[in-house]
Design goal:
About 25% of the residues lie in helices and about 25% in strands. It is α+β, with helices and mostly antiparallel strands. The strands form three sheets. Strands 6-9-10-15-14-13-12-11 form an eight-stranded mixed β-sheet, with helices on both faces. A five-stranded antiparallel β-sheet has the order 3-2-1-4-5, with no helix packed on it. Strand 2 and strand 3 form a beta hairpin.
Length: about 400
């Protein structure tokens, strides 16, 4: 067939959803739901569903591009337009709250030091020279560098990358919203999340949580495990509790593994799906880059809704010596064989002084899933990475 170029004089155009002969007319419904009506001609018999057509100035039907084979998609993704609007309104909310939008690199010296996250590694070449670089697992390091410049409210919606994660809730490439406030409390970040959800509900036809609740980790251990959790518990204490609860473990389980197992199997299943649940004050070994409170708990929280962990938030560590020590300890725990180095520019920035700050990382695809009732993250994306 001839593939004509676009003609500005075409009256209408689009992809055929259905066609029907009605008397002397051919009635065509396009995928856009527009309806075309032309005088029926025998040569129009060749037109079929999924063909691209146009109507010229003489009301003749023109074949623009024939559907020679099934497309990539069996049907249009109903969430794509909603996602576009949602993405816009996420930015609009933070702009309305006087946050500064930051753009951080996607090729970095240090992807992050958290031992449970496996980054993507690549080579940066310049002539005969080559240096190892990574795709970021989060924009955290560069956003904290920005805090040292004196910007008190900053955010970014960044593409992030984590290897070995393909499930109904995980994609190796995903969107992460991070925002930071200097001279603010963790409670302020909880309010930010609640207000963001409320703002999106006003703009879009979606659902919100029926109620908001907040628990400490120790209160959840007491409620669901009948255990008096203390911040100085050792691995043996978690192992004993796991045994009492009938959980299967082995000697390779670290204290982190045991904690996650108890949370995943005995606590999180009790969270009502329709409620937004904040969980705060974690054991100190779960501090990551959070401050430790005077009573020994890590000053951080997570939030759950619709059976998903949505957010991690921290009262950020800004002591450069403690930060370096924690980062080095994290690197020692890595088992993936990657020779990741610390970003020394980050520590130079911390040495210049980072004000007391709080920060949050929110998976915005998961928030979208919770608000629109989507069960699989693959359904939020046009081009998801599937299992292989």
């Amino acid at each position: 067939m001839n593939y004509p170029a676009f003609d500005p004089q075409w009256k209408s155009y689009g992809r055929i959803e259905s066609l029907e002969v009605r008397g002397a007319q051919l009635v065509i419904t396009l995928q856009s739901q527009a309806v075309l009506k032309v005088v029926y001609q025998p040569e129009y018999e060749k037109f079929k569903k999924d063909d691209w057509v146009a109507v010229d100035q003489k009301d003749r039907l023109i074949l623009v591009a024939e559907a020679l084979a099934p497309g990539l998609f069996s049907e249009p993704n109903e969430f794509i337009k909603k996602w576009s609007q949602y993405f816009f309104y996420v930015h609009e909310y933070f702009q309305s709250q006087n946050f500064l939008l930051i753009s951080t690199p996607s090729l970095v010296k240090c992807p992050g030091t958290e031992p449970s996250l496996q980054p993507f590694e690549t080579q940066l070449k310049n002539g005969s020279q080559a240096k190892t670089r990574y795709l970021p697992t989060s924009p955290e390091i560069h956003l904290k560098k920005t805090l040292t410049l004196g910007y008190e409210r900053i955010y970014e919606v960044a593409k992030c990358y984590r290897n070995s994660e393909i499930t109904n809730l995980h994609q190796p490439e995903f969107w992460l919203l991070e925002w930071y406030r200097s001279f603010a409390s963790l409670e302020t970040l909880q309010t930010d999340l609640i207000q963001l959800i409320g703002f999106l509900k006003e703009k879009l036809p979606c659902q919100g949580p029926s109620q908001v609740r907040c628990y400490s980790v120790s209160s959840l251990f007491k409620k669901y495990c009948d255990a008096d959790l203390k911040p100085d518990w050792l691995r043996s204490d978690y192992q004993n509790l796991a045994n009492q609860l009938g959980l299967k473990t082995n000697e390779t389980y670290t204290i982190d593994d045991l904690f996650f197992l108890i949370m995943l199997e005995k606590i999180e299943p009790h969270f009502p799906k329709n409620e937004l649940i904040f969980v705060e004050n974690y054991p100190p070994f779960q501090a990551a880059l959070a401050r430790i409170s005077p009573d020994g708990w890590a000053r951080r929280f997570e939030a759950y809704w619709q059976g998903m962990e949505l957010i991690n938030a921290f009262d950020e560590l800004n002591d450069p010596h403690l930060q370096r020590q924690q980062s080095q300890n994290d690197l020692k725990k890595r088992t993936d064989g990657l020779d990741i180095k610390l970003d020394e520019d980050f520590f130079k920035a911390l040495d210049s002084g980072m004000p007391p700050s709080v920060g949050a990382a929110l998976g915005i695809e998961r928030l979208f899933m919770a608000m629109f009732g989507v069960e699989k993250i693959q359904n939020v994306r046009l081009f998801p990475i599937k299992t292989y």
